[in-house]
Design goal:
disordered N terminus; Rossmann fold; 3 domains; AMP-dep_synth/lig_dom; globular; 13-stranded mixed beta sheet; alpha/beta; ligase; 525 residues; GMP Synthetase, Chain A, domain 3; four-stranded mixed beta sheet
Length: 525
């Protein structure tokens, strides 16, 4: 045998065994073998091969942790420790922040019964998030409102939601004060629920009733889709009363243990980029209007930014290409969702797809089923979303919202999509995004994209207005175009007018174009 070769010990590699007297070599004694201590390996002999350690794949770990091993809602002790140690507010020095136990004690002292709603309108982002979770663990039903609302705006919301109390900023160690709303008819809810206000589909006094457990399930799905890790630092630049910021960022951070840096309005590109660098941010989310403002500056995101997600509205393909050009080493995700669905529905990993899919919102998340109904000849139709994270019901004033439950855990989105053979979803517009001009349907989404792609334009929206009577006494459909820009200059006005003239017929022109400059204190998708 050559030197260095491995020699099998007697017994076939299982160690030496005893042999009964008088029995031939190799014959085993019935019963349990008695093993002697292993002999020392001669010098120069290699060690026997060891079985390699099998590592669990990361995606398998995510699947197990989100569906089998971990309950959807973290324990109160874990949430309290997270809020007290891993959450900070951007732009503020080392000031004392209310601890979870102090905010919980103030809410408990208010005497609000379990299952009643409390409206939270505290300005400090850290205290808002702490009050939201503290109310949940007390069995109350929290609802986040925009901070700074005046009394005449709070009263209709209290009455519409049947809220029992309002949580505002106050003195003392808790930093909050709880006052009774005085609403004549309190709405009974259930412990473990929360109300998320909708951003326009149901009016200012409407919202969606959700289970907090389903919100955490949705947060974990989104975190898995973008690869959020416990070692990440997440910058929250959107207001927390928006479902995208609350669920996909704040609650995702609580669920995964990623560090949170709470920002918010006012948003400036320079301040945003400085915050990314100052806090070593690795994950950030922006709305399309904030992306347009960011691309207006001749600066690149820092290399520490690993993941950037864009959600809340449609981002033009030209802006997507520019984002990829400025930050080619980072991961870029386009997301689609709606408050009624809990909210995240689908995600597109732009950095893994060809440019032909830059206008897609990706495939549905695991656990989400999408169907298209009332399919038109071009393959488009209204998207239906079936998910266990769908809202329980709509609360407040429903108005004329198209987005509502049409079946068990199924939401009619009011959004028009088409789906390619690989299952990727492409947004075509909303059911209310079409007007009849000159006998043909005009897509208002198409008009918004034409103007939104112009340099200097941050946000474009359309407003339907009642036109004059046409033939047969029918009301003509007209629309007004609202353009928000960084600076409204004569050159910008001329660019918009020229662009509309190049692509629209005379009967398709808006009845009015309203220009306004960006207000840094306001947020727009």
């Amino acid at each position: 045998m050559p030197d260095g070769a491995f020699r099998t010990p007697p017994g076939g590699g299982r160690g030496p065994v005893t042999r009964a007297p008088g029995r031939p070599r190799g014959a085993r004694t019935p019963g349990r073998a008695v093993r002697r201590p292993p002999r020392a390996r001669p010098a120069g002999w290699p060690a026997p091969p060891r079985r390699p350690f099998r590592r669990v794949r990361p995606e398998r770990q995510v699947t197990l942790s989100t569906t089998r091993c971990v309950t959807p809602v973290p324990t109160e002790e874990r949430a309290a420790e997270y809020l007290d140690t891993l959450v900070r507010v951007d732009g503020q020095g080392p000031v004392r922040r209310p601890r979870f136990a102090e905010v919980r004690r103030a809410l408990a002292a208010s005497g609000v019964a379990e299952g009643h709603a409390v409206l939270i309108c505290v300005a400090d982002a850290h205290t808002r998030l702490t009050a939201f979770l503290a109310a949940h663990y007390l069995g109350l039903v929290p609802a986040l409102l925009p901070p700074g609302w005046a009394e005449h705006r709070l009263r209709p919301v209290c009455d519409a939601l049947g809220a029992a109390a309002v949580v505002c900023a106050g003195p003392g160690p808790s930093g909050v004060t709880v006052r009774r709303s005085g609403t004549p008819r309190l709405q009974p809810y259930e412990a473990g629920q929360a109300v998320l206000l909708t951003s326009g589909t149901s009016g200012p006094a409407g919202g969606c009733l959700h289970r907090v457990a389903s919100l955490f399930v949705n947060a974990r799905r989104h975190a898995a889709a973008i690869g959020l890790r416990p070692t990440d630092t997440v910058l929250v630049s959107l207001p927390l009363h928006y479902s995208f910021a609350l669920v996909a960022q704040a609650l995702a951070g609580v669920a995964t243990g990623a560090r949170l840096v709470l920002g918010g309005p006012p948003f400036t590109p320079a301040g945003y980029l400085d915050s990314l660098t100052r806090h070593d941010v690795t994950v950030s989310s922006l709305s399309p209007s904030l992306v347009r403002a960011l691309l207006g500056e001749d600066r690149r995101p820092p290399r520490s930014l690993r993941v950037l997600t864009v959600g809340g509205d449609v981002l033009e393909a030209t802006r997507v290409r520019e984002l990829r050009r400025r930050h080619p080493e980072g991961e870029l995700y386009l997301t689609y969702g709606l408050t009624e669905a809990g909210p995240r529905v689908s995600t597109l990993a732009v950095h893994r797809e060809p440019e032909s899919r830059y206008t897609s919102v990706g495939r549905p998340l695991p656990g989400v089923v999408t169907t298209v109904r009332d399919v038109a000849p071009d393959g488009s139709g209204e998207l239906l979303v079936t998910t266990g994270t769908a809202m329980v019901r709509r609360v407040g004033h429903p108005g004329t919202a198209r987005r509502d439950l049409v079946g068990p855990h199924t939401v009619a989105t009011g959004d028009v999509f088409r789906r390619d053979p690989e299952g990727f979803l492409f947004f075509c517009g909303r059911l209310s995004d079409f007007v009849v001009a000159g006998g043909d349907r005009l897509s208002l989404r198409w008009v918004r994209e034409l103007v939104g792609a112009l340099p200097g334009v941050l946000h474009v929206r359309t407003e339907l207005v009642r036109g004059p009577l046409g033939r047969g006494g029918l009301v003509r459909q007209r629309y007004r175009l609202h353009v928000v820009a960084r600076d409204v200059t004569p050159r910008l006005r001329e660019l918009v007018r020229r662009r509309l003239k190049e692509v629209l017929l005379r009967v398709e022109f808006p009845c009015d174009v309203v220009f306004s400059e960006q207000n840094a204190a306001e947020f727009a998708k």
